[in-house]
Amino acid sequence: MATKIPARNPPSLLARSLSFASSLAEKLPEAPSPANSAIDVSDTKRLFASVPTASLLHSLANLSAMAAGPLVDVGVAALRAALASEGQILRAAAIGVARATVHRHFCAGEGFEDAGHAVAGMWEEQGLRSILDYGMEDAEDRAACDRNLAGFLRTVEMASSLPPSSVSSLFHEKGIRNR
């Protein structure tokens, strides 16, 4: 059964198109126009045609492992222990495993540039829109707050180059603390 995804956001959603010019972001080319604006998720051959088999197998292995609750618990405990230890080799190994598995599967990259390339690639290759989410680190001092603000502003500027209905934002007041 095909699932239809509307081409436009319903009016009930609070969506705002960012249209200001950006010196950091390149304007993306028009996406390939499919014959039908709905994505047919039942046609997996077409849906995953541009994804290499090795990437699909890697995703299958990751998701299968993450579906096993006890295995996830052991992984979380091992990662916490490695990060708490003084040994740099153990810490580097744990971070490397996390990056190669969970981070690689769920994150578009480790930085602003990586995420921008991933979002642009999905748009150019498949015409898929993305949700760009900026995760702010906890800020303990003014310099950390300034770094977080600069990262957020760079993300907004990059998002201005995305198709109009691709961007949504949610701000949590609890993320801002007065000191």
TrEMBL record:
Gene3D superfamilies: 3.20.20.220. Keywords: FAD, Flavoprotein, Oxidoreductase, Proline metabolism. Its EC number is 1.5.5.2. One of its GO terms (molecular function) is proline dehydrogenase activity. It catalyses: L-proline + a quinone = (S)-1-pyrroline-5-carboxylate + a quinol + H(+). Converts proline to delta-1-pyrroline-5-carboxylate. This is Proline dehydrogenase. The keyword Transmembrane helix does not apply. It comes from Ensete ventricosum. Its cofactor is FAD. Coiled coil: none annotated. One of its GO terms (cellular component) is mitochondrion. It comes from the Eukaryota. Belongs to the proline oxidase family. One of its GO terms (biological process) is L-proline catabolic process to L-glutamate.
